[in-house]
C-alpha cells in the first residue's frame, strides 16, 4: 500500500510539471491559444482575402550610392543647359531686319566713344548683349532718340541701368545700358531723350566683375545682336 501511494504521488508530480503553467490554473473556457497569449507583444499583418501574391526580383529595386547621385545630378544639369541652349538658338534665329537707317544720318549713335569690345551676344552662356569695356566714369550716350522706360539704381543683374524705347525705321526698338556707376543716371523714366544725349557713366554694378557698359537691343520684342546692329546703323 505504501509503495502504491508513493508511485501515485510521483505520477501526479510528473503530470503537473509537464503541463503549461497557464493550463494548470485556467478553466477550459478561459484557455487561450498561443497566438492569443502572444498578442500583447506581437506585430500583426491583416491581409484582405482578395490580395494577390507578387514575387520581388533583385532588378525591381536598387541602392543609390553617393557617386550615382552625383552622376544623376550632373546629367540633370547638362539637360537643363541643353534646354537653355535650345531656347537661346530659337530666339537668336528669329529673322529680324537690323538695317533700320543709314549710318550717315546720325539717327543711331554709338553709346560709347572709346571702348574695347568684350563679350558678345550669347557668349559664355545666356548673354543677351555686348559688353563695351571702358574705365569707370566713361560717358554713356543714348543710341537713338526715344523715351526712357527704365531708370533704376538696381535693375536686376544689370545694377544701375537705363532702358530707352525708340521707333526707328518704323520698328519698335528698345536699348538697354547696364552696370553704370551709382548715382550717375542723368535721365529718369518718362523723359524724352535725343540721339547722342548723355544718360550716365560706366561702372561695375550688379552682376559685373569689371567696368563696362552692357548694351542690349530688342526689335519688336526679339533679341538681336547689338554689335551687328550698331555696325549697320550707327553713324
Proportion of residues in extended strands:
15-25%
Mean pLDDT rating: 78
The helix fraction, in percent, is 25-40%
- The total of helices stands at 5
What does this protein structure show overall?
This protein is α+β, with helices and mostly antiparallel strands and about 240 residues long. The protein has a domain at about 105-235: Glucose Permease (Domain IIA) (Distorted Sandwich). The chain is about 25% helix and about 20% strand. It is built from five helices and ten strands; from the N terminus they run H-H-H-H-E-E-E-E-E-E-E-E-E-E-H. It has helices at about 1-20, 20-25, 35, 65-90, 225-235, and strands at about 115, 130-135, 140, 145-150, 160-170, 170-180, 190-195, 200, 210-220, 220-225. Strands 1, 2, 4, 5, 6, 7, 9 and 10 form an eight-stranded antiparallel β-sheet that branches. A two-stranded antiparallel ribbon has the order 3-8. A hairpin with a 7-residue loop joins strand 4 (about 145-150) and strand 5 (about 160-170). The longest helix is centred in the middle third of the chain and has 27 residues, at about 65-90. It is rod-shaped and about 145 Å long. The N and C termini lie far apart (about 140 Å).
Amino acid at each position: 500500500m505504501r509503495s502504491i501511494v508513493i508511485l501515485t504521488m510521483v505520477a501526479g508530480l510528473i503530470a503537473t510539471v509537464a503541463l503549461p503553467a497557464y493550463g494548470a490554473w485556467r478553466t477550459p473556457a478561459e484557455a487561450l491559444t498561443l497566438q492569443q497569449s502572444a498578442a500583447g507583444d506581437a506585430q500583426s499583418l491583416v491581409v484582405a482575402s482578395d490580395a494577390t501574391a507578387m514575387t520581388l526580383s533583385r532588378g525591381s529595386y536598387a541602392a543609390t550610392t553617393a557617386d550615382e547621385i552625383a552622376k544623376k545630378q550632373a546629367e540633370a544639369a547638362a539637360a537643363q543647359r541643353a534646354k537653355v541652349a535650345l531656347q537661346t538658338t530659337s530666339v537668336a534665329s528669329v529673322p529680324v531686319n537690323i538695317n533700320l537707317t543709314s549710318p550717315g544720318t546720325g539717327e543711331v549713335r554709338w553709346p560709347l566713344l572709346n571702348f574695347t569690345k568684350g563679350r558678345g551676344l550669347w557668349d559664355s552662356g545666356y548673354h543677351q548683349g555686348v559688353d563695351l569695356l571702358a574705365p569707370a566714369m566713361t560717358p554713356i550716350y543714348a543710341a537713338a532718340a526715344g523715351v526712357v522706360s527704365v531708370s533704376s539704381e538696381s535693375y536686376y543683374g544689370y545694377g544701375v541701368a537705363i532702358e530707352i524705347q525708340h521707333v526707328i525705321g518704323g520698328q519698335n526698338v528698345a536699348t538697354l545700358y547696364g552696370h553704370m556707376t551709382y548715382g550717375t543716371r542723368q535721365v529718369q523714366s518718362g523723359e524724352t531723350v535725343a540721339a547722342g544725349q548723355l544718360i550716365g557713366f560706366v561702372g561695375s554694378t550688379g552682376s559685373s566683375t569689371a567696368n563696362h557698359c552692357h548694351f542690349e537691343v530688342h526689335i519688336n520684342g526679339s533679341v538681336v545682336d547689338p554689335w551687328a546692329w550698331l555696325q549697320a546703323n550707327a553713324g
